[in-house]
Design goal:
Blueprint (H helix, E strand, L loop, with lengths): L39 E5 L8 H16 L3 E5 L3 H9 L5 E3 L4 H4 L4 E8 L5 E2 L1 E5 L15 E4 L5 H13 L16 E4 L3 H10 L5 E5 H4 L12 H6 L18 E5 L3 E2 L2 E5 L6 H11 L2 H4 L14 E3 L7 H10 L11
Parallel strand pairs: 1-2, 1-3, 7-8, 7-9
Antiparallel strand pairs: 3-12, 4-12, 4-13, 5-11, 6-9, 6-10
């Protein structure tokens, strides 16, 4: 790892590849989360979708400042890996991270809470086809062309890769290389993966997070997946876009439940405001995170934060182990 001057240092064996520097969307020179006023440094993951994450998190920042009296500086990191690196090297006190960051952060980053959406702390991947295809189950995808989300997206690519493997399809070295039994094309995000299925006749199936596919899948197709019905925030909305004339999709499979993304803190951060911020995060309601006056284009994708710890992310570690991935493999994509 490249050591950045005046940005703290790592006291443990580094888990990251050397990088040439940190790209900041805010244009701040020097360190991620650098601040001269003693503010709490809150670093944000770059979103997979094209969103203004700094704008989206501003209501949370303002809520936390009002509740705790702390001053909070928001900074967007250039990659998933850089977000966790900021916690390891004392460039951040708190961070919005991906689920895949939790196993890699053991020993220097703590899970403060798990983000929830409309009461649901778990989310799901789907693999879907079109109603006029002759694909009836995942095994039928052998020899075909499918699309997935971003190469290292947990719900768009990693969980679906395990689903394919468990169905008996040889995925080879994917997502780091090519699959053997079918062709897989990654997209930039979940919506693009879904749209490719609809618009490209050569593509026979699409993997996405359920939040991107469920509105175009008739609700009754999910009924055999009891965990999805019980836990998914997307179940009630399943099929809703069909009323607006959107193309119908045919469900092939739903993943096991996945823990939603965490809010993490630097383990050695022991300033008095840490406890106050943690309490405020866990007490935050939807109105605190998404006030009525927020433009819908800048709304957070989650509505609350519930208590969680590293053990809640064991399913993510199992996915990484199954695919032979380590967290540094995420650096090239983001």
């Amino acid at each position: 790892m490249v050591q950045k001057p005046d940005c703290g240092g790592s006291t443990r064996r580094t888990f990251l590849k050397a990088t040439s520097g940190v790209a900041l969307a805010t244009g701040v020179a020097g360190c991620i989360g650098a601040t001269d006023d003693g503010a709490v440094r809150f670093v944000l993951n770059p979103a997979e979708e094209q969103t203004d994450i700094l704008e989206e998190y501003t209501p949370m920042k303002e809520y936390l400042e009002e509740e705790t009296g702390a001053t909070i500086d928001l900074t967007r990191a250039g990659s998933y890996v850089e977000t966790l690196e900021a916690l390891e090297t004392d460039q951040a006190d708190i961070a919005d991270t991906s689920p895949t960051a939790v196993p890699a952060g053991e020993g220097f980053a703590d899970v403060l809470g798990m983000r929830t959406a409309f009461g649901g702390a778990l989310y799901f991947s789907t693999i879907a086809t079109t109603p006029d295809s002759d694909i009836e189950e995942l095994a039928d995808l052998e020899g075909g062309l499918i699309t997935t989300g971003a190469r290292m997206s947990t719900s768009g690519t990693l969980a679906p890769s395990v689903m394919l493997s468990e169905a008996g399809i040889d995925i080879g070295d994917f997502p780091e290389g090519d699959a053997n039994d079918l062709e897989i094309r990654t997209a930039t995000d979940h919506d693009t993966s879904r749209e490719r299925l609809v618009n490209d006749d050569d593509i026979v199936a699409a993997a996405t997070g359920a939040f991107a596919s469920a509105p175009q899948i008739p609700q009754e197709q999910f009924d055999e997946y009891s965990e999805f019905v019980e836990h998914s925030a997307e179940y009630d909305d399943a099929g809703s876009d069909l009323e607006d004339g959107e193309p119908e999709l045919q469900l092939l499979a739903v993943s096991d439940p996945l823990p939603r993304a965490p809010i993490m803190a630097r383990s050695e951060w022991d300033d008095p405001e840490r406890e106050d911020i943690e309490e405020a995060l866990l007490a935050a309601g939807e109105d605190d995170l998404i006030p009525d006056d927020v433009d819908e284009d800048y709304e957070l994708w989650f509505t609350g934060i519930q208590d969680a710890d590293q053990s809640d992310y064991e399913p993510i570690q199992e996915i990484l182990d199954e695919l032979g991935l380590e967290f540094q493999d995420f650096d090239d994509d983001e």
